[in-house]
Structure formats: C-alpha cells, structure tokens
Specification:
By secondary structure, the chain is an alpha+beta fold. The chain has 8 helices and 24 strands.
C-alpha cells in the first residue's frame, strides 16, 4: 500500500476492495459500495465532527515546548470540559513522524501547561510518560473559543501540507466530539445517501468520539483504542431492530461504528438507545453481536483497526486481503481507498472441527409486524429458543 498524501476525501479514482461472506475478493470503484447492499439492510455512520485537538504550548515548570493532543473523555456533553485524556509530545510538530517525536519533559501531577490562550493542569499520569489526564482552567465558552482559535487538527507526516479543519469533516459531521475524523465516512456523500434511499435502504447515524490512531510509541499504541464516548439515537436503535426483523444486514461505516454498536449491545444483541463508553477491544477473539458488514479504510498490519478485521474474517482471508491491497497499490490512511468486508458466518460457528448449529427461535408475532424468522429482533419481542445451541 502507499500513503495517500493529498487531503481529497472523494477522489475520482478512489477504489474499493469487496470481500463477500465466502471470502471472494473483487476490486471496484469506491462509489460501488451502495450497489452491494439490499433493501432490507441498514447503514449506520458516525456523525461526529472533528475537533482541532492538537495544542502547542509550553511546560511551565521547565519552559520546554510541547504538543498536547486531546485523545479521549468520558462524555459527549459540550459543557463538560473538566477532564480530558491527552497524549503529550516534546518539541516539534506533525512534519516529524510520530515515532521520531521526542518525549515531553517529565510530567507530574500539578504541572501547569500554557497552551496559547488556554491553561491546563496535569491531574494524573496514566502509567506512561506521554499519557496524562488534564484539566483546563476555563469556562466552557472560553475553552471552546480558545480551542477554536489556537488548536489544529491532529495530523501525521505522510501528508504533504498542513490541513485545515474543514479537510477533516465528513459530509454528515454534526457534534464536535471526535479527536480524529471518522474517516470511513469520507466515502459517504449526499449522492450515495440519495442512492440508498432510492433503493429503500435505511441510512442512520450515531455519534462516537473517535480517538487517536497512533501515538508513535509502541507500548502506548498497544493501549489503543482508549475508551471512547458514544450516543445512539432512538431512530438508529429502531432501524437496526427493524432490519433484523426483515433479515437485513447491519452495515457499519467505519470501525468507530463497530465499537459503539458492539459496546451498546447486550448479550442478546439488542442495541438500545442512550449514551455509553465504548471500552470493548474488537479482534479475532471478539464475537460480533450486531454488525454484519464493515466499510472501512485500508489499515496497516499491527494497528488496532487492522486487528478489528479479524472479527469479520479468518486469518487466511485477511492475509489474502492484505496481499490484494499491497499488489494493487491501494492508498492507505485517512484519505486512502476503502474495503467492504462482509462477516464470514461460516467461520463464526466452527469450533474445534465440530459444526455449530445456530439457535432456532420461536415463531411469535413481532411488534414490527415482520414475518421474518431471524434470531435478533425488536427489543420488545418475547423471543424464546426452541432448542439450545448444539454441536454435531
């Protein structure tokens, strides 16, 4: 793969690698992603807008230059600015690769940070010299004004020029809570949304505070993604339930949507309305309860985004995907090409050489009036298993 160096969200030559449930791989233009969906499917996207989350400044005690990148918080409430998780770098900026950035001066609880018009205090050091909790000395209005005036978007050295804030906003961006863009949403535009609606495919959103994708430190990157706040509207929960009743698939636009839906789902796979904290780590050991299909960017081996794909496909299929991306010179990173991956159901029910027979459900009437006999349905439906899952 090659790095996408230009901040073009929807280049005319953007490509899509399509991986179906049988592991068959095909290359298509990226606009093709709407054509591989069915009318019973529901598409879920992240409508979080991107913050200017990078703040340059000074460590007051030492006088050393620093860069502070906001990385997470436990709420989506814009008035709740008391506590933020942040990653701190030493002198330099995005033009230096993150793995080559110097560490900050030693940080201790109580240290003051001067960040342009804002000041903050280190409230905790979180088991790593770069990872801290900070508290800002400002009212919500003053904080947001200072962040807007002084902050820059988080950017990495593979890009050719400085980014503007609007470069990092998806077409459906709403509440400013993401620390990096939910960049899989760059593939979505109003034309594709109209195409979905014309075919009767539901398009709904949730809000997930997408965090940092890299810190440049191996030990700290291993802790990513950090717990991230999310909110699921009632309309989204209803649409997912209705799609389940109709035998449709849940299509996630990006890994942030996967994490939010899987964190929100109870053991029976029902997604309920409300807010929460996505603290699940999705990888080969994670059993997906909600999402059937993922539209995402191309991801490098070793990243948490790449590990998440193992929840959808087996190791052999993922190796073939990686090989296809490399041979095809697909573009990677936030402005790169895309992958459309359908969950490989056969693999999900294989255990130690014995074939797992899926649960069969009772044929009770459904509140949404669907006649489908799917396993997961409306939250109010009194599902009962006819028989326990069994091996044979």
């Amino acid at each position: 793969m090659i790095a996408a160096r230009e901040p073009s969200q929807r280049p005319h030559d953007a490509r899509l690698l399509v991986v179906d449930r049988r592991g068959h791989i095909a290359e298509r233009p990226r606009a093709f992603w709407t054509e591989v969906l069915a009318a019973s499917d529901v598409v879920v996207a992240n409508d979080a807008a991107t913050l200017p989350a990078s703040l340059s400044g000074t460590h007051v005690a030492s006088g050393a230059s620093i860069e502070l990148r906001l990385a997470a918080r436990r709420s989506l409430d814009l008035d709740d600015i008391a506590s933020w998780t942040a990653v701190v770098f030493g002198a330099g900026d995005w033009r230096t690769r993150t793995e080559h950035r110097p560490p900050p001066p030693p940080l201790a609880v109580g240290d003051r940070l001067a960040l342009g018009p804002l000041t903050a205090e280190v409230a905790a050091v979180l088991g790593h010299p770069r990872l801290v909790t900070v508290r800002f000395d400002a009212t919500p209005a003053a904080f947001w004004q200072g962040l807007t005036e002084h902050g820059r978007v988080v950017q990495y050295a593979h890009l050719a020029a400085p980014l503007a804030l609007w470069d990092m906003q998806t077409p459906i961006a709403a509440r400013p809570v993401a620390f990096e863009p939910p960049s899989a949403g760059f593939a979505v535009d109003w034309r594709s949304i109209r195409a979905l609606r014309a075919r009767g495919i539901r398009f709904v959103t949730l809000t997930h505070a997408a965090g940092l994708s890299s810190t440049g430190d191996y030990a700290l990157d291993a802790r990513l993604p950090l717990p991230e706040a999310y909110a699921i509207p009632a309309a989204t929960a209803r649409a997912i339930a209705a799609a389940r009743c109709a035998g449709g698939r849940i299509v996630a636009i990006g890994t942030t949507v996967v994490r939010a839906l899987e964190a929100a789902a109870s053991r029976d796979g029902i997604v309920r309305t409300g807010t929460g904290l996505a603290d699940v780590y999705v990888d080969a050991a994670f059993r997906l309860r909600v999402v059937d299909v993922l539209l995402t960017g191309t991801h490098e081996v070793g990243t948490s985004h790449h590990a998440l794909l193992r929840a959808f496909v087996g190791a052999d299929t993922l190796e073939r995907i990686d090989d296809s991306l490399e041979r095809g010179q697909f573009r990677t990173h936030e402005f790169g090409d895309s992958v459309f991956v359908e969950r490989t159901h056969d693999r999900r029910f294989a255990t130690r050489g014995r074939r797992f027979e899926r649960e069969r459900v009772s044929r009770l009437p459904c509140p949404c009036r669907s006649t489908s006999r799917t396993r997961r349905c409306c939250p109010d439906r009194p599902w009962r298993l006819r028989s326990r899952p069994r091996y044979r």
